[in-house]
Fold:
Amino acid sequence: MSLRGLLPDRLASQLMALLIGALLLAFLLSTAIIVVSQRRAGDSARAAVAADRAVELVVALDAISPEGQAEFARAASTRTTRIDVTAAPFVKETADNELSRTLATQIAGETERDARVSILSRVETAPSDDPRNAGRNREVVVISLPLASGERWLNFTTQEPLTWHTSADQRFLLISMGIMSLAVAAMVWLFIRRLTRPLTELADAARRTARGDHSVRVSETGPAELRNASMAFNVMQAEIARFDAERTRTIAAVGHDLRTPMTSLRIRAEMIEDDDLREPMIDTLDQMAAMAEGLISYARDGREEDRVPALDLAALLARVCEERGVAFKSDALPQIQAGPISLARAVGNLIDNAVRYGGAEGTTVTLSQTETAVDITVADTGPGIPESLFPTIFDPFTRGEGSRNADSGGAGLGLSIARRIVRAHSGELSLENRTPQGVSATIRLPISRL
Structure:
């Protein structure tokens, strides 16, 4: 599995995961350093204490009669220290390690005797104090010193405790590390939130812009790089809004200015007595008039209409479907905030397209609702849309088939107008071919944004 698959998706979560991982690594490393340093210090300290104890014991044993030495040794032994007086030394020669040699030299210098020291590790097989310690390496220090009589040896054996620190020390260390980690994580989380909030706001503004809302702006806060990005986005939005407004005014003006000369031409065409000449001219002028009206609708719809706070969507769709003679099905009765005129026009454009290519009998409008959105679906049984047209099907003057006669279609603005209206309602319009034939157009309006 790749590292990307293991990391969370959001930037803030990734930064927190990185922080927690770094804190955990630092905690483990610092704990290891403390353990090693404590063990090294403990090893040297325990060995030094053992050496001092052995020197004290050999002085005391020299002052006791041979008969009392064995009893004294038994009385002086403890759970971790054992004292034996034997005829032969336990340590034949000093072990070949630095600490053993150092202690042997130190004891020999203090007692002027042949001190032999061996420091070794022994595996604990069945400790009586805690079975969980079985199998742990345990350091053992063995010191052999000849007594004054020269016939007997002091054998001093001591082993380290099974824990290098007490449980209280361990709890204190863990609690300290935990509090430190939580404090650092809290401070960094506040910084991360401050860092990522402008990014989240910028991403949301970009999505709203993609739906056609050029009025959205982002706050210019955060680090300098994010402030510069927000400032550039706001400047871009202002330029796009200005350009879009100018384009809309131009389109509306062109459509409006075309209506007067076309009306005049139609009046004159109707005065022509030759039917074969008059009818084609009138049909052509009607198409031009439809294009002009489409331009005006394209520039106007969904932009400035007042929204009804509780629009009965099912009743609106039922009326639009009844006017066009198509079937309507609904399993929901949502009331939404929307513009009834523009929304009716958007749905009407989709129904007109469906009826044009599939007939009224094969067209069905369905209203459904989920937890987050309402869906308006217009389905027909027409020939469908060629796959090559899907990338540009919503562009102005694009139609689902190539002919441009009055019987088969209009100017190719219906889908563009419908999508503009839907996006003005913070929704989205999608198209897909049905099986075995036909087209399904779905308007999805998010409830949270209505």
Notes: The chain is about 55% helix and 15% strand.
